[in-house]
Amino acid sequence: MQGSKVKMKMSFVFAVVILFSLPIIVRSDDAIPADKAQLGSWFDKQLAVKKPMAMGGGGPPKVIRVGIGGQFKTVTEAITSIPVGNAQRVVVSIAPGNYTEKITIPSDKPFVTLYGDPKNMPVLAFAGTAAKYGTVDSATLTVESEHFMGVNLKVVNSAPRPDGKRVGAQASAVRVGGDASVFYNCKFYGYQDTVFDYKGRHLFKDCYIEGTVDFIFGSARSLYLNCEIHVIPGDGNAIITAHARNDAKEDTGFSFVHCSISGTAPNAVLGRSWFPYPRVVFALCDISNVIIPEGWSNNFHPETNSTVYFGEFNNRGPGANMEKRVTFAKKLTPAEANPFITLAYIEASTWLLPPARI
């Protein structure tokens, strides 16, 4: 498992944008409630204040439609129609159906929303692999623009499951590198490297993510809120996260709050030391016995035991028992967990908008 990304590691290091440490000021209303039943009303309250910059400065959103009854047959055609440097939010409404295409939202087209029917989600699928495109460019959906929003989508990398023999079989469903991006009620399907959480500040809320090895990886500062993380057996151990933090000064990391860890893999871990300083926290989560008692892996690099930040706080379920955890896993105190269980972790008060509605 540890050699699957050796070829891309050097290029990835140079590609990562380092976000240097900034103080995180936690207001009491930013803190995620410990009672999951209060999550919905609390979240709605957080988003009650409008953020004109995130909405785009060109007036109300423009809606364009893809599929049956729409102006465009493909999502790519719709994205191409958006002018470079657009200052107005554009909602691309995608009709139910299967869309076999490799989609990119370029960096010069901000304020784009891809919107699907919550009762009949469109399926965006493509079979890109690292062998053909490189891991960085293997994704079905690539988001390079700022202020992107994905709502009610199924995003699939339909490439064959890696078998441990084929070189470059890893394949991402989504790569998100645009800052201030959010996914609401989206489902991501793949095996190895499903979600490439590349760089920037992101929120994944009410999402489903499925995979085998390193299926949430990258160097972003992201909050996963009320998501289901579904682990299926990999080639060897199954691994949820591989966070690419290369220096203690990088203000990046993955925080999972009120998530559920489900699956069928018999030997999964919450994360591994891909880079020397990974930072991953699971808080207030339901963790099934898909996670082994040790919980985490140093990826056969014991020198990282003193540099990783693998934290757990008030999790529940048979996989949450920390009695046999590796020595480098940290049982967080409330004060230590506080910065990770708040929308302030991704500075959401400056950019986060509620999900689009049509």
From TrEMBL:
Its EC number is 3.1.1.11. Pfam families: Pectinesterase (PF01095). InterPro entries: Pectin_lyas_fold, Pectin_lyase_fold/virulence, Pectinesterase_Asp_AS, Pectinesterase_cat. GO terms for molecular function: pectinesterase activity. It catalyses: [(1->4)-alpha-D-galacturonosyl methyl ester](n) + n H2O = [(1->4)-alpha-D-galacturonosyl](n) + n methanol + n H(+). It is found in: Secreted. Its main location: secreted. Residues 70-347 form the Pectinesterase catalytic domain. Gene3D superfamilies: Single-stranded right-handed beta-helix, Pectin lyase-like. Residues 1-28 form the signal peptide. It comes from the Eukaryota. Pathway: Glycan metabolism; pectin degradation; 2-dehydro-3-deoxy-D-gluconate from pectin: step 1/5. The active site is at D214. GO terms for biological process: cell wall modification; pectin catabolic process. PROSITE patterns: PECTINESTERASE_2. Belongs to the pectinesterase family. This is Pectinesterase.
